[in-house]
Amino acid sequence: MKDKILIHINDPKQLEKLYRADKSGFKRAFTSLYPELEDRILADYWNERLNYVDGDISWGSSKDLITVLIAVVLAGLLAKLPAFLPVDEAFFYTRNTGFIVFPLLSAYFAWKNRLSPKKMLFPAGIMLVGLLVINFLPNEKESDTLLLSCLHLPFVLWSMLGIVFVGKVGNDSEKRLGFLTYNGDLLVMMALILLSGAILSSLTVGLFSLIGFNIGEFYFKNVGIVGLAAAPLVGTYLTRTNPQLVGKVSPVIAKIFSPLVLVMLIVYLIATAYSGKDPYNDREFLLIFNALLVGVMALIFFAIAETTKATKSRAAIWILFLLAVVTIIANSIALSAISFRISEWGITPNRAAVLGANALILVNLLLVTIQLFRVLFKKADTSAVGKVIAFYLPVYCLWAMIVTFLFPLLFGFA
Q1: What pTM was estimated for this model as a whole?
Q2: Between 20 and 30 A from 279 (CA), which of 81, 260, 348, 383?
Q3: pLDDT tens digit string along 344-359?
Q4: In three state form, how does the secondary structure of the chain look?
């Protein structure tokens, strides 16, 4: 996109075509190029146009609003299926929670992106296969492969949503980074929606209890569940129609929490060494350790997606570089621990899943760290860091599909 903008920087018609073809990608590319183009009148115009913030809240067109309301109703009905059908709640929610939201979000973006049925064939097909596989797996409560499938299937569905968001299966690093940015914005918006909903729910239940009506159980089994199902859809609609609402919040959160998490992780590793906790023999500690790594990795992804769009701050890049290095150290400890457990006690579905995930994360972190090093010491472009993350995302999707669909067969549904 950057090369195309530079080629057509003096051609208003071509710039307009580029913008309409990919608005978010155009804005990211132009914003990073603008410091080099400030002396051009047309560049100044586009900078003002792209960064103009309307103070009013947009609710979109009536057609958009009706479509989202229909999706919200469908999400609510899906969330309440166990109440309408003779289906065990535990069975339904452990296996099908992802299907309450992700297919509807995918349909929304397919509609907004005007995707043809041909382009929807792959993501829709994978979702259908996932729905059939997860619901026909043997209902063995002690099955590790069933648990792993239930945990990894939402990531597969999330990946299919990413394909619909991007608009194609092929590589498009700018749109993939845009997808990560959308997820960061959505998390912020959902946090606000759920916090507001929690306050409203507490007030409602409390007020009714004052007049002798105990509606708590009924309220949370009906209104609460429907609200949880609707939150991602409403949050998506608000962030897409009003990008200014959280567009500046996500970068601030990334800048604040990146150094804090860096300090926390360093202190945690030092404290772990003195605590006597042993990830090589303590299974629960290793699981918590890996959960921490996944959280830190997600923060790095979102921070890079936000930071590399336009920043020239070496301090921000340094923090991300150090955070990646420390996370590599932590990941190496986890990887060696799970390798030790496999060599001592043999392979199991859980150990295989953790080993594969840690290995993939380690490779990705090394690639990201190399690019951050090049930015710091070899004056490379920050966009290269984002491209590495965007390029690697399908690898995680493939691994999630392997764990979800193949592990039950490979390990005999154990």
Answers
A1: 0.84
A2: 260
A3: 999 999 999 999 999 9
A4: CHHHHHHCCCCHHHHHHHHHHCHHHHHHHHHHHHHHHCCCHHHHHHHHHHHCCCCCCCCCCHHHHHHHHHHHHHHHHHHCHHHHCCCCHHHHHHHHHHHHHHHHHHHHHHHHHCCCHHHHHHHHHHHHHHHHHHHHCCCCCCCHHHHHHHHHHHHHHHHHHHHHHHCCCCCCHHHHHHHHHHHHHHHHHHHHHHHHHHHHHHHHHHHHHHCCCCCHHHHHHHHHHHHHHHHHHHHHHHHHHCCCCCCCHHHHHHHHHHHHHHHHHHHHHHHHHHHCCCCCCCHHHHHHHHHHHHHHHHHHHHHHHHHCCCCCCHHHHHHHHHHHHHHHHHHHHHHHHHHHHHHHHCCCHHHHHHHHHHHHHHHHHHHHHHHHHHHHHCCCCCHHHHHHHHHHHHHHHHHHHHHHHHHHHHCCCC
